[in-house]
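Quick one, tokens below:
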């Protein structure tokens, strides 16, 4: 139990750097909490004074004493004091809540930024090994869970502890024996809480993990909705969702049910205590040791002890979910980041575009992909990279862009190892057009201009013309101002690819990477695009990942990859004359086309 408490305390203390900038608002909220609890603790005693005064006046009246009656002036003065106490308590709560909300929401704002910035610094390998939906859940759902727990639970815990301390103190001032009996509620409640938390904590952790898995599954299923319909896998997708949903329901039920047992068990303990104190207190009143007002106040203090204990039971679900969420957040924040940048980094003043692969070795885990690869590409050359699936074509590009770092050897641009450059500076040299297009929700103009945000409109239009997409854009209802929706499905796949090509053209990069960039356009448009791309590629180094070998006949160099090694290098004519692996690949595609 002590070890678990220490772990929870260490987890909470990790939030200190985020709370620290707003410490004065936070401390002000704590001061208001103390002030409000102090006022609330005085209230039962003052309320008891009214009961005592009425009992005394009634006793005098029943005895028939001359001039006996109810002293309304005394009662009104007590009521006035009670009203001031209630106003102070209410004002303290309002001001304290405002300051606490300000500090916590600002801290959570900073925490979200920190998680987002951390995600930006994570290596691509992390995203390959984690579901997108699970990462999204940590950035949004888990941070929101922590925010709600701090906002709603923290102040109640602080006020609860203060209330316990002050209520017990007031009880001992009234009647020590009854106070000793009453505080037995606390150890019994702690035993109940310990037993319940121990059984439910694992379920809350499993609940948060299942929530992340559910988000990941939903993201995958909705992202591939058209493919699911195409292959008739609706039933399979429903079954997959139901399995993950059932897992979440199972853990959520166990967590919620077990934690909900705390409140009734603590309440039962309180009721038994109040019954015992009521009997004992009546004897104390009869014997004249305490007044009836003191007995009333004492029973109210028992309820003040019960309130924070009950709150713990009610908040235990939220608190345990928050601890689980906080652990998941820090799993991200404590992840190993990308290899640090060179200090100081090398900056290329005039980039020519010479690229050298010097004995490059790389693998995913224990699986080697690229082994001892050597190649020299001169500035302005068009290099086609071909080979079967899994040969290492895309891996080579990932290494070139430093999405992954080589494990052996080096990659150099104009003689400079790319690891000696800042990633941002390195990637600024490249333009890239992928087979899988990416457009964001916005106008067509903004999507093209994404390649160079300082571009003028005439430059955007010129890039669109070179990509042969200008005419298509002009036929649209609002032309360049047409909005592309969030899913990007209000234009065709081929048109999206043309827009990404226009984006790359506008950027005017020193080195261009094309990953089967014309795969989504028809044959006629492909021919036009190839002519346009030929103009764009002039004078700049380019890498073309090609699956249709007929499109790279004019390449200055063709690198044929097989099992992570360069099998052959040369032009189309020289490789065909070799009658080697490239010729087999080319003829197999030609034969397939003839069939």
């Amino acid at each position: 139990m002590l070890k678990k408490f220490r772990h929870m305390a260490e987890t909470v203390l990790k939030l200190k750097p985020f709370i620290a900038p707003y410490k004065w608002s936070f401390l002000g909220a704590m001061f208001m909490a103390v002030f409000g609890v102090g006022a609330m603790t005085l209230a039962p005693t003052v309320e008891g004074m009214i009961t005592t005064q009425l009992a005394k006046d009634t006793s005098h009246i029943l005895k028939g004493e001359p001039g006996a009656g109810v002293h309304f002036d005394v009662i009104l003065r007590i009521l006035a004091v009670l009203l001031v106490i209630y106003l102070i308590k209410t004002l303290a709560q309002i001001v304290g809540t405002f300051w606490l909300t300000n500090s916590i929401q600002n801290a959570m704002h900073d925490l979200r930024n920190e998680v987002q910035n951390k995600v930006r610094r994570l290596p691509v390998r992390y995203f390959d090994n984690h579901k997108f939906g699970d990462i999204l859940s940590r950035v949004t759902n888990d941070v929101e869970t922590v925010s709600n727990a701090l906002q709603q639970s923290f102040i109640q815990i602080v006020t609860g502890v203060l209330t316990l301390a002050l209520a017990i103190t007031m009880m001992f001032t009234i009647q020590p024996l009854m106070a000793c009996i009453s505080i037995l509620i606390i150890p019994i409640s702690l035993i109940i809480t310990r037993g319940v938390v121990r059984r439910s904590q694992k379920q809350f952790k499993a609940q948060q993990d299942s929530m992340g898995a559910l988000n990941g599954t939903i993201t995958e299923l909705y992202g591939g909705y058209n493919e699911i319909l195409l292959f008739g896998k609706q039933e399979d997708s429903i079954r997959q969702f139901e399995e993950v949903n059932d897992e979440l329901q199972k853990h959520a039920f166990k967590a919620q049910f077990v934690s909900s047992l705390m409140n009734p068990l603590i309440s039962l303990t309180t009721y038994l205590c109040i019954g015992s104190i009521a009997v004992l207190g009546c004897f104390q009143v009869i014997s004249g040791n305490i007044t009836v007002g003191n007995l009333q106040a004492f029973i109210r203090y028992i309820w003040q002890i019960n309130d924070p204990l009950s709150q713990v039971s009610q908040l235990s679900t939220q608190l345990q979910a928050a601890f689980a969420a906080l652990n998941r957040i820090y799993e991200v924040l404590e992840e190993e980041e990308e290899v640090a940048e060179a200090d100081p980094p090398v900056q290329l003043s005039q980039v020519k575009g010479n690229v050298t692969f010097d004995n490059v070795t790389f693998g995913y885990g224990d699986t080697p992909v690229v082994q001892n690869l050597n190649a020299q590409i001169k500035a302005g050359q068009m290099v086609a990279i071909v080979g079967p699936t899994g040969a290492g074509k895309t891996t080579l590009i990932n290494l070139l862009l430093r999405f992954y770092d080589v494990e052996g050897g080096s990659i150099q641009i104009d003689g400079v190892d790319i690891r000696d450059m800042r990633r941002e500076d390195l990637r600024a040299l490249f333009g890239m057009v992928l087979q899988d297009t990416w457009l964001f929700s916005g106008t067509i103009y903004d999507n093209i201009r994404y390649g160079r945000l300082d571009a003028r409109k005439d430059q955007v239009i010129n890039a669109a013309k070179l990509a042969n997409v200008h005419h298509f854009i002009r036929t649209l209802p609002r032309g360049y101002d047409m909005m592309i929706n969030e899913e990007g499905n209000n234009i065709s796949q081929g048109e999206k690819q043309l827009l990404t090509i226009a984006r790359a053209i506008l950027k005017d990069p020193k080195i261009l990477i094309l990953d089967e960039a014309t795969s989504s356009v028809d044959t006629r448009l492909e021919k036009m695009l190839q002519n346009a791309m030929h103009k764009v590629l002039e004078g700049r180094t380019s890498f073309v990942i090609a699956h249709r070998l007929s499109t790279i006949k004019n390449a200055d160099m063709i690198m044929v990859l097989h099992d992570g090694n360069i099998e052959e290098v040369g032009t189309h004519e020289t490789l065909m004359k070799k009658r080697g692996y490239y010729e087999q690949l080319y003829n197999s595609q030609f034969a397939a086309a003839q069939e």
